[in-house]
Automatic annotation (TrEMBL):
<dbReference type="InterPro" id="IPR006300">
    <property type="entry name" value="FlgB"/>
</dbReference>
<dbReference type="GO" id="GO:0071973">
    <property type="term" value="P:bacterial-type flagellum-dependent cell motility"/>
</dbReference>
<dbReference type="InterPro" id="IPR001444">
    <property type="entry name" value="Flag_bb_rod_N"/>
</dbReference>
<keyword id="KW-0975">Bacterial flagellum</keyword>
<comment type="similarity">
    <text>Belongs to the flagella basal body rod proteins family.</text>
</comment>
<keyword id="KW-0282">Flagellum</keyword>
<comment type="subunit">
    <text>The basal body constitutes a major portion of the flagellar organelle and consists of a number of rings mounted on a central rod.</text>
</comment>
<dbReference type="InterPro" id="IPR019776">
    <property type="entry name" value="Flagellar_basal_body_rod_CS"/>
</dbReference>
<keyword id="KW-0969">Cilium</keyword>
<dbReference type="Pfam" id="PF00460">
    <property type="entry name" value="Flg_bb_rod"/>
</dbReference>
<dbReference type="GO" id="GO:0030694">
    <property type="term" value="C:bacterial-type flagellum basal body, rod"/>
</dbReference>
<keyword id="KW-0966">Cell projection</keyword>
<protein>
    <recommendedName>
        <fullName>Flagellar basal body rod protein FlgB</fullName>
    </recommendedName>
</protein>
<feature type="domain" description="Flagellar basal body rod protein N-terminal">
    <location>
        <begin position="22"/>
        <end position="39"/>
    </location>
</feature>
<comment type="function">
    <text>Structural component of flagellum, the bacterial motility apparatus. Part of the rod structure of flagellar basal body.</text>
</comment>
Length: 122
């Protein structure tokens, strides 16, 4: 009787990959804070994770694609067309980092549980 690792780990690997992709997008926003005309981007984490849950995980295996990008609407538009708001981006980046750590912790707990079950300790 074998263990189906995909079922055992659930969506945690997909969530971790998505959090990593989102970190790249948010870091790009922060790096382009002073770039005229730069449009702040984000991704719809929930929608992408729902795709993975439905078995439509193929987009998770490929690099982040521009058609999956959402654009953030600024509360105060700048004159140069840049939509990056430093405080908003820093808050989103920090929250994403915390969520990444949470996903990593859940994944680690799952793996420890599987190791204990394999060794007969659980």
């Amino acid at each position: 009787m074998g263990i189906n690792l995909g079922q055992a780990l659930g969506l945690h690997p997909a969530a971790l990959k998505l959090r990593g992709e989102r970190a790249q997008v948010l870091a790009s926003n922060l790096a382009n804070e002073n770039t005229p005309g730069y449009q702040a981007r984000d991704l719809d984490f929930r929608a992408r994770l729902d795709e993975a849950a439905l078995g439509l995980a193929e987009p998770l295996l490929q690099p982040f694609e521009s058609d999956a990008v959402l654009y953030r609407v600024p509360s105060r538009p700048s004159q140069d067309g840049n939509t990056v708001e430093l405080g908003v981006e820093q808050a989103e980046f920090a929250q994403n980092a915390l969520d990444f750590q949470t996903s990593l912790t859940f994944l680690n707990m799952k793996l420890k549980g599987l190791a204990a079950a394999i060794q007969g300790n659980g």
